[in-house]
Design goal:
- The protein is built from 4 helices and 2 strands, in the order ααββαα.
- With 134 residues, it is mainly alpha-helical.
- A two-stranded antiparallel sheet has the order 1-2.
- The longest helix has 35 residues, at 14-48.
Length: 134
């Protein structure tokens, strides 16, 4: 099998396609969560703590020069936004996994039908109980 045909067989397997779809949907979900945190959740929190843009909070280690460049700062407000985004994504993934586990348990709990030979032996036993030999 050549390298390219082996790669094609690998790439066309269902799991790889499902993974690619998951990555694309995950990226889109990440943008939604970023927008939710930056534009919906953080403005009211910023208003409650003094009406400032929370993502602008930073600890300046070195001020910018006269040209406005060269500032060195630890941006803990942006970091806190990212932590909130992570918490929202982690909670959403938790809910999805919990739902999937619930669905898997329901399918596993259904008892499998007994094999045909067990059914036949049970019928023979019942017939012998009801009609004993003479």
């Amino acid at each position: 099998m050549s390298f390219f045909s082996e790669f094609k067989a690998f790439a066309m397997r269902g799991n790889v396609i499902d993974l690619a779809v998951g990555v694309v949907i995950g990226a889109a979900f990440g943008k939604i969560v970023t927008s939710l945190v930056d534009q919906v959740i953080m403005p009211p929190i910023g208003m409650l703590i003094g009406g400032v843009d929370f993502s602008a909070y930073k600890w300046v280690l070195q001020a910018a020069g006269p040209d406005g460049k060269g500032e060195v700062a630890i941006q803990f407000g942006a970091f806190l936004n990212t932590m909130i985004q992570f918490a929202i994504v982690a909670f959403a993934i938790f809910l999805v996994v919990k739902l999937m586990n619930r669905l898997i348990k329901k399918t596993e709990e259904a008892p499998a039908p007994p094999p045909a030979d067990v059914v036949l032996l049970t019928e023979i036993r019942d017939l012998l109980k009801n009609n004993p030999p003479r």
